[in-house]
Amino acid sequence: MLAVKLLGNEKVETVDVPMPEEQEGWVILRVKASCICGSDLHAFHSQYGSKVIPGHEVAGEVVSVGEGVKRVRPGDRVAVYNMVSCGWCKYCRSGDWIFCNELKIIGGHIDGGDAEYVAVPERNCFLLPPELSYEEGALIGDVVGTPYRAIKRTGINGTHTVLLCGLGPVGLGALLILKELHARVICVEKHPYRCELGRKLGADVVINPDKDSPEEVVKEVTDGEGVDVAIDCAGKEVTENYALDLVKKGGKVAFVGENPSARIKPSDQLIRKELTIIGSWYFNASEYEELLNLLKRKLEVDKVVTHRFGLTDAQEAFSKFASGETGKVIFIPELSR
Fold first, then answer.
1. In CATH, which of 3.90.1590.10, 3.40.50.720, 2.40.110.10, 3.60.20.40 is domain 146-279?
2. What is the per-residue pLDDT for 95?
3. What is the spatial distance between Cα 53 and Cα 59, in angstroms, rounded to a whole number?
4. What is the pLDDT of residues 278-308, one digit of tens each?
5. Are the C-beta atoms of 40 and 54 separated by less than 8 Å?
6. Rounded distance between C-alpha atoms, residue 129 and residue 169, angstroms
7. Which of 13, 109, 282, 297 has the most CB atoms within 10 Å of its CB?
8. pTM score
9. Do the Cβ atoms of 181 and 202 come closer than 8 Å?
10. How confident is the model at residue 42 (pLDDT cuts 50, 70, 90)?
11. Greatest CA separation found in the chain?
């Protein structure tokens, strides 16, 4: 079967590899859609690449099942939950799979979906309703689920003004959900392509910090008070500081974008403003039905997708995504030459 390999130093290759083998409790899917994520770019840019097939936002059709599989059958349409947990620890038993100490990620630790076929545990297969497409099934993870969890935990509603930093795929998904809630959204994004995409998806204000001062624009738009909630999806020190500086006293800040370190000013930015700070990583399996309901209500998540590629165009797909001149990029194996 065809599969994508990240070789390191921004080199990508499409190779022929053996089909995944059946194993107890697992199923094999024919991949119908698999997305590139910003986290994939760590291996893309690194010297060493990755030993596993990437792709952790996946949807496909079940083609075979291993011994002990009882819930899904060949022909079922499923979205893949990419967090493979032990199922027995206190976190798993309480539904918090993302906190499992033995957690493995499909496409990170286990071969993922940038391939014609992928093997996943049965319990990680979530059935797709007939009215939802495979692309929507793949997008339900990072584009919908990741921002949804952060937005839910901050309690945003239509009375709020929200600062949204970063209009990559997660930020664009957040924008769609925030507008569904009728919040006023001020976006900060430096890539002109994504600025324009944000405007098309309904952002009330889009600030390119290379051209305008976020501090001055937010001050003007909020009559000097600051935003009610700030969400950082960029994971950059500068945007994390925008979030802390531009939220009002007593406001809330959610950090979603990954960043190993940043310099902040706790006294001025946190303590004296009495902010509520939330770290939000990924949605839990228990929230899947909520995400389905969002999509069933016609959340137009497909508008986040700007490019589709076959597996044989993997180098172009990753290079294009890394340029910042895209929204979400999806592999459709059936397009492979």
1. 3.40.50.720
2. 86
3. 15
4. 999 999 988 999 999 999 988 999 999 999 9
5. yes
6. 23
7. 282
8. 0.95
9. no
10. very high
11. 63
DSSP for 177-243, please give it.
Answer: HHHHTT-EEEEE---HHHHHHHHHTT-SEEE-TTTS-HHHHHHHHTTTS-EEEEEE-S--HHHHHHH
Strand partners, 31: 60
Distances 311 to 96, 329, 337 between C-alpha atoms, Å = 33, 12, 8
> Average pLDDT, stretch 51-70?
97
Facing residues of 6 across strands? 12
Strand residue runs (E) in 222-314: 227-232, 247-255, 276-279, 305-309
Domain ranges, ordered by start, for the chain: 2-128+300-335, 146-279
Q: Which two tokens stand for residue 142?
A: 């990072």
Could you tell me the two tokens for 197? Answer: 């995409």
Report the alpha-carbon distance of residue 48 to residue 262 in Å, rounded: 25
Residue 38 phi, psi dihedral angles, 5° rounding: -55, -30
- pLDDT value at residue 336: 84
pLDDT of residue 240: 98
